[in-house]
Structure formats: structure tokens, C-alpha cells
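User: Structure with guanosine-5'-diphosphate, C-alpha cells only please.
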Amino acid sequence: RADMTVPAPVPSVTAPVTQDGQLAKIDQLQIIDEAQHFTPNLNKYLTKWDLINSGFDYNVVAVFGSQSTGKSTLLNRLFGTTFDIMDSKRRQQTTKGIWMCPSAYSAALVMDVEGTDGRERGEDQDFERKSALFSLASSEVLIVNIWEHQIGLYQGANLGLLKTVFEVNLSLFGGSAEAAARPKEKTLILFVIRDHSGYTTLTSLADTLKESMAEIWQSLSKPTHLANAKLDTYFDLSFAVLPHKIHQPEKFEADVVELRRRFVDKTRPDYVFQPSYHKRIPADGLNHYMEGVWAQVLANKDLDLPTQQELLAQFRCDELAAGVTELFNVSSKTVRRPIESGKVVAGLGKLMSEWLHVALTSFDAAASRYHPGVYQRKRQDLVTNLHATLSPLYLGELKNTNKAVSAMFVTDLTAALKEPSYDFAEVVSRCTRDARKSFLAVAKESTIEGSGWEYEQELALLDDSLKSIADKSRADETKKMVNGIERTVKRQLYEPVEIALSKPSPTMWDKVLSTYRDVTRSAEQSYLKKAKAYDCTEEENEVALRSLATRSWLALHHKLEEQTADPVVLSTLRDNFEQRFRYDEHGVPRVWRPEDDLEGAFKTARDETLTLLPLFAKVKPKDEELLPKLPVPDATETDSDPENFDPETAFVLVKPSRLSQLEARFKREADAAYVEAKRSMVSSVSQ
Ligand code: GDP
Ligand code: MG
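Assistant:
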């Protein structure tokens, strides 16, 4: 072992030094104080020590042993820690408690457990038991510091301490055989034998210690379900010796450096922090875990490690979920207002996916280190909650898209209908296709996979909306078309009616009605031809045709009323009379001579004219087939006076009383013409 006398520090085992050559001062933290309170500052210190984000990449080691056996001295040398050292001259009593300090050489937390030797001081062993439980629940390596001369003395206090350790260990794995058999993390007990004289070899010392361990294990009163439990199911044992620090200071230093390698160099076979010893508590959960363990220990409750790990996982997963949810909500807030105000947010699906990705990645990074079952369950809860947060945005987006697309549909439809020629049905189907496509593009983009979201309902609403817009547009278009046809009807009807009625004759009504028949027939045909392009329903056609028939009939009826008004009838009669009385058969104005039969001519002209008057009384064609079947007016028509549609009244144009008035007025006018003619004859004679 000559090589061991020369210290050969490698960089990783060399303490960081400050400029003045001193070890960098690292604050120690009292995690359990003398009043047995757990520190409120562990997370703060883990952050300060730059360990909080190390996940599983950190280790925990604790030291046990009698008071004043040089434990703190060893730790400070081994790990570069700053634990208090007792003054050798005044063997004062150290306060009970557990201190923690990070190793200067690797990511390890070192716990210095004080006051674990109650039996030596004749105190109760309460704290010994508590601190043993606590250390076992969190440490990978338990250093048992022991004098060489204590070895083999079973009655020695140190080994009593180990008995306590073994006992409490059994309680950590639940009250059932299954719980005890669950895969668990072993703990390494590393005996550091102090003041090694060199007379007895390490191997022989180790053998003695192993025998003692076996004896202690044998002597334990084990719960029945663990009666056959083996020591090595729970513990590995390892050994090291150190010479007397005061008598062999150089060798002591060299051996400490060598021992340190076992805590630092992962490639060594005797590397102490083997992964199987790790208690699998992520660094960011260590505070909560230790606090919980200590609370259980204080309450004297069963400290079941698997349960503790699950509880920790629940707590930490909830905490992590709350953290990422908060950030998530900040992101999603940016689109909440635009969506609430009716805007369609472009690429919403991509945004939402990004937020989800960020949230879950961040959650997974930390939470996946915890109990897998709890983690998976909490992750599912988180996903469900995040989806639920996004759901109103999704529904809002769909609603807004529906609105925007419907508006676009109106614009497109209107523009297409302004074209000089179009097939309405084709235009509607094209615009509908475009609108659905636009909607589906947004709907599909914003539907998050695995969310269970659906847009079918909103799509159905869109379809309804498009259909009602198209229906209204078609109704408008057909109405426009009917109006146009009505104008044509009037144009084609008015002149022939005027001409026919201005030259009253017994066949006058046949002319009027055959024109009416032709005009209405061609109007109907023209409607049906155009309506085809609108894809109108039978019912719509029926309504439109009835409206057209009503309006055509009213057009004729009004024209007939106009043409049979008093002045028009009188003027027509006057023209006829004058034609007969004042012009000869050649159309030449007559000049009455005394020998002419003025009176006879007057009577003939007047009576013949009067025979025409009854023709105006009623629409009465010679061919009765020509009498039109009157339409039944729609209630929506402006002029739906029933008299205009009742065959009893509708064809009556001049009632008998008015007929006799007109006759009287005509006669007076004819008389006046006669008198004037007579006067002109007399005057021509007198010349
Ligand atoms: P702790 O109470 O176990 O933490 O012991 P300390 O580290 O405070 O040391 C108690 C006393 O033992 C101090 O006076 C040290 O100088 C002394 N001491 C430290 N290391 C050794 C050693 O290797 N051998 C001996 N005999 N004494 C030591
Ligand atoms: Mg100490």
C-alpha cells in the first residue's frame, strides 16, 4: 500500500479553493433542529447549491456513529464540507440535529447526524430511532464511523445503533409480505474504521464486523411476514480504514483522498453511489419528501417508503401541473379577447398545439421522474384540463368561422349574380362548396388530436345558414324575375286593349281576351323556362305562377277600368257619333244644305252610336271559352280586393245606373252637335 502514502489528487477530487487558498465556504443547513423541527429552507438551499434541477443526478450520504469519534472531521476532509468540529479539550455535548452540506467534489448531499448515541449518554433512544429512519429513507450510503478498538465488542454502543438501524429499516417496507418484496432501493453501509493501527488487516476487521452484523440481524425481533428476511436484501456492506489523524496526519490525508475517489469516480468497481442505492427522489421533490418523511417519523406513524414516494409524486405532479398551467394560461390569454370579439384567429390549432407542447414538455421533464403510475395519471389530468381550457377558444373559433364564411358566401353569391348570365343553381352549389371548404380548413386545423373535439355540429349549423341565405337569394331572384315578366305582360297588353276599346264592336272582347290569353300563356312559359335555372321547388313555382297570374289579371282589370272611365267612354262615343254625323261615308266633312235631312241623319248617327254603349257594360266575348278563369289572389298581394276576382263582379265594368247617366250625357252632347249643325245650315242659307 506504498502508493497510498502519496496523495495523488485528480481534478475531480480536489476541493475548489478561493483566491486566498482556502476551501470555498459552503453554508451548512440544519435540516432538523434541536426542537426536532424540519427546516423551511431546504428548497432555497438546494437552489443556492445549484442542485434543485439535477433530477436524479445527485446523491445523499449520511454519517452515523458515537459522539466525538471524529465524524464531522471525516466528512469535512472527505467532502470539503464545513460541519462544526468539537473542541477536544472540552468534551461539550453536541446538540441533537441533522445538518446538511453539499459535497465540494460531486453532486452529493452530506448529512451529519448528531446525537445518535443516546444510549452511551444514558438518554432515551428516541432521537436515535428517528434520525435512523429519516436517514435510511433518504440516503444511499450510510457511513458508520467506528474506532478500531470497538470492533468485536458487541456490547459496544455503536453496534446497538446498528440494531436500531436494522429494526427501523424493516418497518420502512410496509406491513405486508408483498410490500416487503417489492423492488426497493438497497442501502450501502460503509464502515469507516478510525485510528487503524495496522496490526489487524482490513479483511479481518471486516470479517469480524460481518459476523457481528449477522448476529444482530439474527437477534432482531422481526415481524412474522419478514421472519425469513435476509440482511443483504436491504443492505450491502463495505469497509474502509483510516489511520490516526493526529499520529499519522500525512497518511490520514492520503487515505482520505483515496477514500474520496470511491465517492467521485463512477468508473471504479467500489464506487459507492451505485444507481441501485438511489432513493429515486428527484432533487426538486427532495424538500417535500424529506419534510413528509420527518412528519411521519414525528407522528410515529408507519413510514412506508412506496407510499411516501406516491404521495410525493402526487404533490409534485400537482405542483408542476399548476406551474405549467399558469404559463399556459398566460399564452392562451393572447387569443381569448380576439376570439371573444368575433375574430377568426389564423393558425389557432398550431398555436394551441405549441402551448400544449411547451406545457407538456416542461411537465414531463420534471414529473416523469416521479412514481410512474401517479405521473401518468396526473399527466392525463393535466392534458384533460388544458384541453378544457382551450375548448371555449375552439368553439369560439368555429362559431366565428361560421359567421365569417356565411358572410363570404353572401358576398360571393351577390357578385356571381351580378354577372350578365349565370345558372343560379350552379352558382349556389359552387359558393356552397367554397364556403364549406373554407370552414373545414379552419375547423380541421384547430381540432387538437386526442381532444375529442368535434366540429360536426357547427358544420351542420353552417349548412343551415348557407341554405337559408341561398333560399332567400333565390326568393329575391325569382321575385325580380316575376316583376320583369309582369312588366312585359303590361307592355304587351295595354296597347291592344286601348285600340280594341276605342273602336267598340261586338267582337271587341274576343280581341281583348285572346290577346290576354296569349300574353299570360307566354308569361307563364317564360317563367317556367327561367325558373329551371333557379332550381325552384314545385311549391315555389306554384306560388310564383299564382302571383304572376294575379298580377296579370289585375293589370288587365285596371286597364279595362281606365278605358271604361266616364270621360274615356264619352270621348269614344263622341268620336263614333262625329264619325257618323259629321263625315260622309267617304270620310269627307259634311256641309249641311237646307234640303238635307239633318234630323234623320242626326237620329241615325245618335242611335247607332248608342248601340255601342252597352258593349262597355261587361266583359262579354262572343266566344265564351275566352273568358279567363280568375286567379285566387295571395293574401300578400297588395290589391286583393275580392270583387276583382269574383266572376260575378270582376267582369262588370259599367253598372246600369252609370250606363244610363252616360247615355244621358252623350245625348246632351249629341243634341248640342245637332243644334250647332242646324245653326250652321241656317247661316249658310242666310248668306
Ligand atoms: P464528532 O462529534 O464525531 O463529529 O467528532 P468531531 O469531528 O467533532 O471530532 C471530535 C474530536 O475528535 C476532535 O477533537 C478531533 O480533533 C478529534 N479527531 C478527529 N479525527 C480524529 C481521528 O482520526 N482520531 C482521533 N483519535 N481523534 C480525532
Ligand atoms: Mg460532529
